[in-house]
Specification:
Structural class: alpha/beta
Number of strands: 7
Helix content: 40-55%
Radius of gyration: 17 Å
Distance between the termini: 38 Å
Number of helices: 10
Order of helices and strands: HEHEHEHEHHEHEHHEH
CATH architecture: Alpha-Beta Barrel
CATH superfamily: Glycoside hydrolase/deacetylase
Length: about 260
């Protein structure tokens, strides 16, 4: 079976359910952490909608059919920001959040970036009472948008969480499809948790394919808390777009490897 299809994603969700995990949005995770009331086994479903938002809607529909709720983070740019798509995903009961890259867009100017962030947040709050945000890695930019919080606080904007700050990764395994594989931390510049990765590798929690993860779920080899992050533009049953994404991502992985070496 081809990986990174909606059919494969449905198989993953079914394996998560059968393994006894509770699905959580990131917003729910933050609230339950506050109250010290997390389920015994839980999976946080997070989607970074970098582009092709209709692919995100297809994932959201699949989750809704399985009574699973997820968090969808949209960029402000037109490649991600589709109002009709955002409305439909919110109507399905999913969380909407802001996938921010303001330091990159404002060329490292903190004041301009904060103003831009606030305006974008107000925009997305038309569709959903946004309470969490998540950094977009913007691998080709020299700016890390998390640096915005060196001078400002997202809590002042009634935001209760940002995954890279508010997830306890000593207790939560982070699995992301960055690089169009599940061990793409080798290619990723920012979407990774380097302080935990060696421990996860040693525990046998590094996987290449979705099938690998499904087998680990079926044999009970995964920890009690997991965050899954996907980029929905990678997941499609249509053969031509599937092959296009495969080729594009392979090229991106090479470029990101070169950028990483230069920055290192």
């Amino acid at each position: 079976m081809r990986d990174f299809t909606i059919h494969m994603y449905e198989q993953l969700l079914q394996a998560i359910q059968k393994a006894g995990y509770t699905f959580l949005t990131f917003e729910q995770y933050c609230e339950l952490c506050r109250n010290n009331n997390l389920p015994a086994r839980y999976v946080i479903l997070r989607h970074d909608v970098d582009k092709r938002p209709w692919y995100a809607l297809r994932m959201a529909e699949t989750e809704a059919m399985m009574s699973a709720k997820a968090s969808y983070y949209f960029r402000i740019g037109k490649e991600s920001n589709n109002p009709d798509c955002i409305k439909l995903i919110a109507q399905l009961g999913h969380e909407i959040g802001y996938h921010y890259e303001d330091m990159s867009l404002c060329h490292g100017d903190h004041a301009k970036a904060y103003e831009h962030f606030c305006n974008a947040l107000d925009y997305f709050r038309q569709f959903y009472p946004v309470r969490t945000c998540c950094m977009h890695g913007a691998p080709m930019s020299k700016y890390d948008s998390r640096d915005l919080w060196d001078k400002y606080s997202y809590n002042d904007l009634q935001l209760i969480g940002e995954p890279y700050y508010d997830v306890d990764f000593s207790q939560v395994l982070y699995l992301t499809d960055t690089g169009r594989c599940w061990d793409g931390y080798r290619y990723s510049l920012r979407d990774k948790v380097p302080e935990q990765q060696q421990r996860w590798n040693e525990a046998g929690w590094s996987f290449h394919s979705t099938d690998d993860i499904i087998r680990a779920l079926q044999t009970g080899k995964l920890p009690a808390g997991i965050m899954f992050t996907t980029h929905p533009q990678r997941w499609t049953d249509k053969r031509l777009p599937w092959h296009r994404e495969l080729i594009e991502q392979n090229i991106k992985n090479i470029i990101k490897g070169i950028v990483s070496l230069r920055r290192g």
